[in-house]
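Report of the visiting student (M.T.), summer placement. My assignment was to run the structure pipeline on a short list of targets and document each run. The first record concerns UDP-glucose 4-epimerase.
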Amino acid sequence: MNTPQTVLVTGGAGYVGSHCVAELLDRGFRVVVLDNLRQGHRAAVPSDAAFVEADLADMDALTRVFAEWRFDAVFHFAALSLVGESMRDPHLYLHGNTVNSLNLIRAATTAGVRKMVFSSTANLFGTPERQPIDEETTIDPGSPYGESKFFIERALHWADRCHGLRSACLRYFNAAGAHPNGIIGEDHDPETHLIPLVLDAASGRRSHIEIFGDDYPTADGTCVRDYIHVCDLADAHLRVLPALETRSVRFNLGNGKGYSVREVIEATERVTALTVPVKVGPRRAGDPAVLIASSERIRGELGWSPRFPDLDSIIGSAWEWRRRHPGGYRGPAVAQAAE
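After the run finished, the C-alpha cells were exported:
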C-alpha cells in the first residue's frame, strides 16, 4: 500500500487555497494548512487537514512546521491580493509578498523539499499586446501586486537553478464559483470580485452594481473578462505535480472565453430569477477592455480542461454558496430542503 503524500498549503484557509485543500483531501493527500487568518477563515479548513495558525514572516514558526512534517510538495497561496490596495501602498505588497515568499522558499529548500506549486496571477501581463494571453505574452505587471508575484516567480527560477526546487507557476484569470458540496465558497472582506458583488445586488444585500464604463470597444461596451471556476483551478494545481518530477513549468489558466460585465449581470438574472439593479459610472483608470487567457499549453501538455466551463454553472455554484451561507463563514449556514 502506497504511503499518502504529505503537502503543505499556505493560505489554505483562503478562497482558492481552501478549494485546493478539498481537492487534495479527496485525492488522498495528507494536508497541513498554514494560514495567519487575516484574510482566510478557519471554518474553510476541513477537520481532515492539520491546521497551523502562523505567518510566513515568522521564520521560527516556519522552521518548526518543516521540522514537524516532511513535505513532498508545497502549495503556496498565501499573499496580500488586493490590486487597489497595492496601488495605494506598494511597499506593503512589494516587501510583504516577496519577503514572506522568500522565507517559505528558504525553509522549503533547507528541508529538502523539491516541489512547489505557486499561485501567481494574470496581473503579470498588465495591458497585453494581444489576445488571448499566452505564456509568451510580454510580462509587464499592472500593479505592485502583480510585480510582487513576478518577483516570486523569479525567486523560484533561481531556487530551481541553485537548489533543485522545481516549481509550477500558475497565472490565472478571475477565479469564481464555489465547491459543489456547498460547504466552502467565496467570502472576502472587502469583496472586490464581480460575481459575488452582482449576486449581492440581486439578493438586496447591495443597493446596486456599478458598471465602470459602458463605452469600451466591445460588443456591449462593457469590459470583457475570462472567468474560471475555482474547482477547475484546484484541479490544475494538482495536475502539475507529476510534471515537476522532471522540470519547472509556467502555465496560464482560464476558460479561453470572455464574458462582458453585462453578460455576467444577465447570467445572474437567469440563474437567480432576480433583477440586478445597475448604475453606470465612469471608467476606472487602468482597466483594459478585454482580458482573455489562452490555456492551450496546459491543455496540450497535461490534458487539463475546465469541468465547469459555462458562465451559468459558475454563477450557479456561487449563488448556491451564498444562499446557504448568507453571512459567509461568520454566519450560520442555512439548511437546504432536499429536492
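The chain has a mean pLDDT of 95. The chain has two domains: 6-176+227-253, 194-225+257-328. I thank the supervising group for their guidance throughout the placement.
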